[in-house]
Design brief:
The chain contains nine helices and no strands. The protein has 190 residues and is an all-alpha fold. The chain folds into two domains: 6-85, DNA polymerase, domain 1 (Orthogonal Bundle), CATH 1.10.150; 100-186. α5 packs across α9 (172-182) and α8 runs antiparallel to α9. 24% of the residues are buried.
Length: 190
C-alpha cells in the first residue's frame, strides 16, 4: 500500500479485528483504505484534506471506475471512524440546523450519541421515531416547540402504546422519552 494512509493499515487491521470483524471483511476494508490512500496521493491531498465532501467524491470515483463494492458512506464508515478517532482526518461536521425542529433533533442526536452512547444506526432509528412524534404535534413552528412539554411526550407515548397493544414492541416509546429529555434544550417546559 502506498500513499498518505499507508501507515495506518496495521492499526486499522487490529482495530477491526478487535471489534470482531471477519478476516475477509477486514481485507475488504484494507483494500478500501489502499484505494483511498492512492486516490489522495493521485490528487496530492493530505489526510487532513479528506473532508466529508471529498470522501463523497472518492465514492463517486469508485462508481465511475466500475467498482462493485465499497460504494457508500456506510462502507467507508469504519475506516473513516478509525482515522477520525486518531485525528488523522477531519471530523465530519453536521449541517447547521435551520429550523427549531432541526435544532431539537440535532440536540437529541447529540444526546443519543454523546450521553446515551448509542450506535449511529440506533440514533438514526430513534430520530425517525422522534420525527413522527414531532409531526403529531401539528407543526414545527417556534410556538409549537416552545410549548412542548414532557406531558406532551407522555401523552403521545401512552396513546402509541394503546394503539400498539397486542402487536410487536416498538422503540418509539424510547425515542419519545429521549425527546422529553431534549425539551428543556429547546425552550419547552416540564
Amino acid at each position: 500500500m502506498e500513499g498518505p494512509l499507508a501507515a495506518f493499515a496495521g492499526g486499522l487491521r487490529r482495530e477491526l479485528a478487535g471489534q470482531g470483524y471477519a478476516v475477509g471483511t477486514i481485507g475488504d476494508h484494507l483494500h478500501l483504505l489502499a484505494d483511498l490512500s492512492g486516490w489522495l496521493d493521485d490528487r496530492a491531498l493530505t489526510p487532513q484534506e479528506l473532508t466529508t465532501r471529498r470522501a463523497a467524491e472518492f465514492l463517486r470515483d469508485r462508481r465511475r471506475r466500475g467498482c462493485r463494492a465499497g460504494l457508500t458512506t456506510r462502507a467507508i464508515a469504519p475506516l473513516l471512524g478509525y482515522l477520525r478517532g486518531l485525528q488523522v482526518v477531519p471530523l465530519s461536521v453536521p449541517p447547521v440546523p435551520a429550523t427549531p425542529e432541526e435544532m431539537l433533533l440535532a440536540n437529541y442526536r447529540d444526546h443519543l450519541l454523546g450521553e446515551r452512547g448509542v450506535t449511529a444506526g440506533t440514533a438514526t432509528h430513534y430520530l425517525r421515531c422522534a420525527r413522527v412524534f414531532l409531526r403529531s404535534l401539528g407543526g414545527s413552528s417556534d410556538a409549537a416547540l416552545a410549548g412542548l412539554s414532557t406531558a406532551h411526550v407522555t401523552e403521545y407515548v401512552l396513546a402509541w402504546a394503546e394503539r400498539r397493544r397486542g402487536k410487536a414492541p416498538d422503540l418509539v416509546t424510547l425515542a419519545g422519552a429521549a425527546v422529553a429529555a431534549a425539551v428543556p434544550a429547546c425552550g419547552g417546559s416540564d
